[in-house]
Amino acid sequence: MIVTYAEIDGFKNLQGISFAPDPKYNIIVGQNAQGKTNLLEAMWILSGCRSFRGSKERDYICLEGVRMSSKIKIKDSVREQKISFEMTKSTNSPKILHLNGVKLKGTRALFDVFKCIAFTPDDVDIVKGSPERRRSFIDMAASQLNPVFVVHVTKHSAVMNQRNALLKEIMQGNAPAEILEVWDRQAAHEGALISYMRNEYIGRINEICGRLYRTISGGTENLEIEYRSNVFKSEDFEKSCGDEAFEKYYSKLCESREYDIRTGCTHAGVNRDEIYIKINGVSAREYGSQGQIKSAALVMKLAQAEIFMKRCKDAPVVFLDDVMGELDESRQRFVFDIIRDMQVFVTTCNESALLPEIKGKILRISGGRITEEAENVSSCRE
User: Fold this and answer.
1) Strand, helix or coil for residue 218
2) Which residue, among 91, 102, 105, has the nearest Cα to 48 in the 3D structure?
3) Per-residue pLDDT tens over the stretch 260-277
4) How far is CA 374 from each of CA 26, 109, 124, 360, 362, rounded to the nearest angstrom?
5) How far apart are CA 280 and CA 284, in angstroms?
6) How far apart are CA 168 and CA 170, in angstroms?
7) 174-219 pLDDT tens trace
8) CA distance 38 to 6
9) How far is it, in rounded angstroms, from Cα 353 to Cα 339?
10) Phi then psi for 34, rounded to 5 degrees?
């Protein structure tokens, strides 16, 4: 899969951006706060995923602006498709999405169309951040392989919001406890499916991460990723996800129901799962060095890309946001060896910090505008 054309206007500080990317390497060069990351983000949101920077949709339009638009053409092994995302301030329907000229009701349909993987400096939070951060990473990565997963995650989130709201009503004496039954049954069904999907994906990524981390550490360290379900034991996953699993999950919710009512929130289920990342048998989050944490996060994102390549016909588009300049030459080669068959967009303040043999297109950006385009990156940096 490759992006063949991009047109962006009014997204944060970007103005009048239009270019035809190189099918291999695109290096976006500029000083800080000039719009490099905004350019990647404006394309990323067309994947149907939330912003990799955590931006709210209301912040897509700059304070002085009134509208924004982001449009791309992508080509996969079958055909070329067009995606557009437009927003206007002060309207009843501020967000308008189109896929091949057809208006969409939401972003879910895009998830199975534009596949991309982003590497950012904040990826270290996958290792050292909260359990929620690790769960979110696994859920998004697994959803890229099977978009049905998104449906279950979305539905479970809606059920949990409703359940937690009811818990507060029950706690205040405004609703009967029996009303939780219908929501707990739905939560058990969706939660069990999510647990089994997480376990399957972590089994895949663990094997690849172990191999990649041994390579990047020179064979001196081992990386292990372990899934700890709040409901199921490891042997439970040897059976298929069915009525027995749903009932076990439901029983777990029932066990904590009284405590949930006293506190007004849910304390059992996939929202309490943990993914442990260990280096040489100990917690990377608690005992890993800064270098180990960075390497572990990098390897997890590379494993995500490798799994996708093995499972799908088309390679994902890769966004490298200000991460390559921090890697030494050997680690850069390690990264580019894995993503060599993918289209890559990389941002940097100094292109000379990147591998000199990379050839493609260079885009210089300043003040939210592309000021120069050039082919053959290697010659531009000599």
Assistant:
1) coil
2) 105
3) 999 999 999 999 999 999
4) 10, 34, 33, 9, 5
5) 9
6) 5
7) 999 889 999 999 999 999 999 999 999 999 999 999 999 998 888 8
8) 13
9) 18
10) -100, -15
